[in-house]
Each structure stands twice: as C-alpha cells, then as structure tokens.
Hints:
The protein has helices at 79-82, 85-88; strands spanning 10-15, 22-29, 36-38, 51-52, 58-60, 66-68, 74-75, 93-95. The protein is mainly beta. The protein has a single domain, classed as Ribosomal Protein S5, domain 2, CATH 3.30.230. It has a 5-stranded mixed β-sheet with strand order 1-2-8-3-4, with no helix packed on it. A 3-stranded antiparallel β-sheet has the order 5-6-7, with no helix packed on it. The longest helix is centred in the last third of the chain and has 4 residues, at 79-82. It is globular.
Amino acid sequence: MLQRTLAKGISVTGVGLHSGERVALTLSPAAENTGIRFRRTDLSGKQGEPVPLSPNLINDTRLSSTIVTKDGVRIGTIEHIMSLLPLMVLTTFWWN
C-alpha cells in the first residue's frame, strides 16, 4: 500500500475547544509502517507513551471523538485532524 507522511513537522497553539485551557499540537513526519500515533506530552512514564490509532480505542463520541487507552489515557477531539487526512492523503505521522 502506498504510504505518505508530512514533508516536515507543524506546530500550533491555541485554546482547547472543550477544556478552555491552553493547548499545543504538533504533527510530525513518521517512518514507513508507523501508522498514526498520538502522544500526550503532558504525561510521563507509561501514560506518556505513544498510542497507535485503533478503532478499538474509540470510547466516547459525545461532542467529540475520544480515544482511551487501557491505562486510562484520554486523547480527545481527534476528529478535526482526522477528517483532513483523506484530503492530504496522509497515512503515517506522529500527533504530539
């Protein structure tokens, strides 16, 4: 399968849609066969480890799409970026 990633990383900061708190988002290029991975940089140890995207992790779809790991790490409002992927033909990158 043809895979594509970003040519270079991109970062943005702003206010969280549901939390109202200051947030930062970085999309980074990834190696072939990495897939789409999320990482909460505000967490450390096991909770700060990369999370590969999987439909099995979708836990909550009220007001947003949230993935939740077996360790309880929540990553929310992923649908905004995910909806752009078909337009950008991206199949692999890091979301920090």
